[in-house]
Design goal:
It is a single chain. The protein has 342 residues and is mainly α. Helix content is 83%, strand content 0%. The protein is built from twelve helices and no strands. The protein has helices spanning 3-18, 23-34, 39-52, 59-71, 77-100, 108-138, 142-155, 159-171, 175-187, 195-213, 216-254, 259-335.
């Protein structure tokens, strides 16, 4: 990272952490210090710092605040929804990280702001993003519709939104993206409203992709990449399920009269998380199987090339033998004695 960018990120992080309870002041500090910098890149830098240093996990909150404060400024409605969805995901990640590291008291104000800001993002953008997705789909902008449904899913993790994103990609002939969304939809904890339909559509898309490539090696590589993306989606779904389980447990602790019900919900959430983890393991196994298929296809291709080379060599040898026989016949013809006619 260039030095000036690091200094700028450090300044914004300090400004954010200085007044975490005043959302308006936070946004003012962000806009003043950030200047003309790109919000997505700026937020990504903060997120990378949080990933690199466990002691600075509150940078997840800072990165989310950058996207939240600049979401309303985005001229493109699609970009506005994507910023809002990513901000909500970062707030959830900060909440999970703070609780798992036992730093909920240290970052009490930031956690309170994250909870309040997440609720505000959902209330302000969730419905509009879904409506805009429907509108884009009706206008034939299926790729943008899928992005909007995905952003809405990050705001409100309802499985039907991933299904809608998959369907939009399918209608737009974005086959690989549709396969990713369908597999991610089926990797979520149940129940699935359209599971059978999603399975049938995914099988059809995979057959289409296989027939379009025509190359077994390339097809296996595409299948392996799709399986890896499926594993990543399943892992994200498991993280979302864990976050929901923690939220249910915290509410149960704060409500003594509903302690028994909250315990049951926590157990159900833990079971869902285990199921999601099991699906992630299955996805990894499928990825390994696809890689093995690719390796086997490559080996068969090499054997085919070797057989072709052998056949070419035999053809050359046969041609040489034929030329030798013809030469011998000519020699024999020229060597025959010439007798005079009577």
């Amino acid at each position: 990272m260039p030095e000036y960018k690091f200094m700028l990120v450090t300044a914004v992080t300090g400004a954010l952490l200085a007044a975490p309870t005043l959302a308006a002041d936070i946004c003012g500090q962000v806009l003043t210090t950030m200047g003309d910098q790109n919000p997505e890149q700026f937020s990504q830098t903060l997120e990378q710092q949080a990933q690199a240093d466990t002691g600075a996990s509150n940078n997840y909150w800072a990165a989310a605040s950058v996207l939240r404060c600049t979401a309303a400024m985005a001229g493109d409605p699609v970009q506005k929804c994507l910023r809002a969805g990513h901000a909500k995901a970062l707030y959830d990640k900060f909440d999970d990280t703070a609780n798992s590291q036992g730093k909920s008291k240290l970052w009490k104000m930031e956690l309170a702001d994250a909870k309040k800001s997440s609720a505000a993002l959902v209330a302000e953008h969730a419905v509009s993003c879904v409506q805009l997705g429907k509108q884009q789909a009706q206008n034939g902008q299926h790729g943008q519709a899928a992005n909007l449904y995905e952003a809405a899913y990050m705001l409100v993790p309802k499985p039907v939104l991933l299904y809608n994103a998959a369907r939009a990609c399918e209608l737009g002939n974005l086959w690989q993206e549709a396969a990713v969304f369908y597999t991610a939809y089926m990797a979520l904890p149940g129940p699935w409203r359209d599971r059978r339909d999603a399975v049938n559509k995914l099988v059809g898309i995979q057959r289409r992709l296989a027939s379009d490539t025509g190359d077994l090696v390339k097809n296996a590589q595409v299948a392996a990449e799709t399986a890896k993306q499926t594993a990543a989606r399943a892992e994200a779904a498991a993280g979302q399920a864990q976050h929901q389980a923690r939220t249910a447990d915290q509410r149960a602790q704060g409500a003594e009269q509903r302690a028994a019900l909250a315990e049951q919900r926590a157990q159900q959430a833990e079971l869902l998380a285990k199921q999601a983890d099991s699906r992630a393991q299955q996805a990894e196994a499928k990825a390994k199987q696809a890689e093995a298929t690719a390796a086997d296809a490559q080996r068969k291709a090499q054997l085919a090339e070797q057989r072709a080379a052998d056949a070419q060599m035999r053809a050359v040898q046969a041609n040489q033998r034929a030329e030798a026989i013809e030469a011998k016949l000519r020699e024999m013809s020229e060597a025959q004695p010439q007798y005079p006619r009577r």
